[in-house]
Specification:
With 642 residues, the protein is of the alpha/beta class. The protein is built from 21 helices and seven strands. Strands 1, 2, 3, 4, 5, 6 and 7 form a seven-stranded mixed sheet that branches. Helix 19 links the parallel strand 1 and strand 2. Helix 5 packs across helix 6, helix 8 runs antiparallel to helix 9 and helix 9 packs antiparallel against helix 10. The longest helix is centred in the first third of the chain and has 36 residues. It is globular, with a radius of gyration of 27 Å.
């Protein structure tokens, strides 16, 4: 018994050590991400879309962060001041994230893509969970959240703790959560590969996510973890391929289950591709186990590991999914399937082949592809990343095939996952190819210096171009009107500048708290700034399937055709949902208007906008109070029907 104790204690010590590193790295990243924006705010910067000053400062900061990362790689490779080198890598990587996103956005209070289109509902969700910790739907009253609430719930609690509005906290929280996720990925990589390689792989994947995934921050924090998580998952299956001998791999099984659960609470689609990739791994592992032992019984350990991963993932997922699941099981099934997967842009109608693009990311992807194929039989890392790439392409093919039956799997959103996997492979490929070239030249030091210089300059070239890749998203952050009614580019604000007055009217006429009331409006960005519940969502694609989006839209059209205030109030009384307490219209030539949306998939664009006009006479009654605020008309129901 005593002789076995060190063997039993060693994995526990390693687990505790890893957990401590995760916590310390996250704290360092959070500190850097907090100090960075605070420092940026001390200076009056010009708008990014009208000046090159912020680009210049961003480039300097990026250069400094990359230089420190290079120093940490050197120290780790030489095994000098290892602890200090690790801390340096955490600080530098989180600083790289903060500089690359924070500096270009330094003169605006909005995040990438401002408050437009999809960013509108994301801000609305963060506002909802800032107002209350309850897992309520972002828009509809009396419904549990259908959209994964993990990232938004944490952000809402942070915003509430800091006394910030949800919209105001979105930018610093998005940048901070990405910085934390990047260093967590770095720590995970360091548990799987040599420390210097871990820094290189984490830097490459982080840069790719910043360039192509950062507009969706709640998905980006999962995307940056996907590559090391798949390597971890493959490590969990490998012992089973050798007949199940030994106890190694169970830590990887638990870790993979936790990652899948985290993905389920943050981003459903990324959970789908990660779970599918892990299932593909399980199938391959089962085949290898069967071939190694000659018995189908060898498949059982693989199946057990997969079931354990899935069980852990389900338990973690229920943290945010339980209210919705219990509501459905309790007798409130969705009346319609929803239209979330009704979208097929050009990028989803063809297989992405980034390795043949004439660009730096194309070159890195090509290196990664060659490495994945060449090392498929000798490298566990190559096997894991290669199986992940195969899973992505299979998902694309399945998504395109499903279009024949009127649906998709939203494969176009997985391009960033493909790029992350290829970038990780490309980083490992560069190291291997450099070693081979160095050996071929008798380890000539000049050759090594040239290779290092080429790699460093390539990293700098890609990094400093990220703000240009995100150029349109940054521009919208400066041209949209924020929750304070201002545009960061100092030009005249839009209609949203009247939202504060609309809010004052609603509070004064309705009383109570904002989340006590349901507001019908087509200007749903108002609901992103103020936590009223909406009667109807922006589009059906992000509407809760329990909310009966189509039926609500039909009801709104029917109301516009009624002939008297009494009929309208009676119709509201008979609704199966909570009726509006107020309506925020736009002024129209023939009455008060609402601009609504309907799904028109398979067309692209997949949304058709249409206008519903209400006659003014419909609200000419003492039971309604009509107030004009700029371009808006605010109608509140202040009495009961006769």
């Amino acid at each position: 018994m005593l002789a076995d104790t060190p063997v039993a204690v060693a994995p526990l010590r390693r687990a505790v050590s890893t957990l401590v590193q995760f916590v310390c790295a996250a704290l360092v990243a959070a500190l850097v991400a907090a100090v960075g924006p605070f420092a940026f705010d001390r200076v009056q910067w010009p708008a990014f879309n009208s000046s090159n000053v912020t680009q210049a400062v961003t480039t300097v900061m990026q250069f400094a962060a990359l230089a420190v990362l290079g120093l940490s790689i050197y120290l780790l490779r030489r095994r000098r001041w290892v602890t200090g080198a690790r801390v340096l890598s955490w600080a530098a990587l989180s600083g790289l994230v903060t500089a690359t996103l924070g500096m270009p956005l330094a003169a605006t209070r909005l995040y990438l893509h401002g408050i437009s289109v999809d960013q509108e509902f994301r801000t609305q969700f963060l506002t909802r969970l800032t107002d209350s910790a309850a897992l309520r739907d972002m828009n509809y009253a009396d419904l549990p959240s259908f959209y994964p609430a993990g990232w938004f719930w944490i952000g809402g609690r942070v915003a509430d703790l800091l006394g910030m509005d949800g919209w105001e906290a979105f930018k610093p929280y998005a940048i901070g959560s990405l910085a934390v996720a990047a260093v967590v990925a770095l720590v995970l990589w360091s548990e799987l590969v040599r420390s210097d390689l871990a820094v290189l792989a984490a830097t490459a994947t982080t840069l790719v996510v910043l360039a192509y995934g950062s507009p969706e921050p709640y998905g980006a924090v999962i995307a940056v973890l996907v590559a090391p998580a798949l390597v971890l998952a493959w490590g969990g299956f490998l012992p089973a391929t050798r007949g199940g001998r030994g106890r190694q791999g169970w830590g990887a099984v638990v870790g993979t289950g936790l990652f899948l659960g985290l993905a389920a609470t943050f981003y459903t689609l990324y959970l789908g591709i990660a779970a599918f990739a892990v299932t593909v791994m399980a199938v391959v592992a089962a085949y290898l186990a069967r071939r190694a032992t000659g018995s189908w019984r060898a498949v059982l350990p693989v199946l057990v590991r997969l079931v354990v991963m899935a069980s852990i993932a389900v338990l973690v997922a229920l943290i945010v999914w339980a209210p919705f699941v219990f509501d459905v099981l309790g007798g409130n099934p969705p009346s319609e399937s929803g239209t979330a997967t009704h979208y097929l842009p050009d990028a989803g109608a063809r297989l992405p082949l980034p390795m043949f693009h004439m660009s730096l990311i194309g070159l890195l992807s090509l290196l990664g592809t060659v490495w994945l194929v060449g090392r498929a039989s000798s490298s566990h890392r190559a096997q894991a990343l290669g199986l992940g790439v195969i899973a992505v392409y299979l998902w694309y093919l399945a998504s395109m095939a499903l279009t024949a039956v009127g649906n998709t799997l939203l494969a176009f959103r997985l391009e960033v996952i493909l790029l992350v996997l290829l970038a990780a492979a490309g980083a490992f490929a560069f190291v291997d190819f450099s070693r081979w070239i160095s050996l071929a030249t008798s380890e000539n030091p000049r050759v090594r210096r040239v290779l290092v210089a080429v790699g460093a300059l390539g990293a700098l070239a890609f990094t400093q171009n990220i703000p240009q890749v995100l150029g349109s998203e940054i521009t919208v952050a400066y041209t949209d009107t924020d929750g304070a009614g201002e545009r960061a580019d100092q030009r005249p604000a839009g209609a949203a500048s009247y939202y504060a007055e609309v809010d004052d009217v609603l509070l004064s006429q309705l009383g109570g708290e904002r989340d006590d009331h349901v507001v019908l409006t087509a200007d749903t960005s108002f609901l992103a700034y103020y936590p009223y519940f909406g009667f109807q969502a922006l589009t059906s694609h992000y509407a809760n399937p329990l909310a009966e989006f189509s039926a609500r839209a039909a009801a709104i059209e029917e109301w516009s055709e009624l002939s008297s205030p009494g009929e309208l109030l009676a119709a509201w009384e008979e609704l199966p949902w909570r009726a509006p307490d107020a309506v925020v219209f736009r002024q129209g030539a023939e009455g008060y208007t609402l601009r609504l949306a309907e799904d028109v998939y398979p067309n692209d664009p997949n949304v058709r906008r249409y206008t519903v006009t209400f006659p003014k006479e419909l609200f000419d009654d003492p039971r309604f109070t009509v107030t004009e605020v700029g371009p808006f008309v605010v109608v509140t129901a202040t009495g009961e029907p006769a």
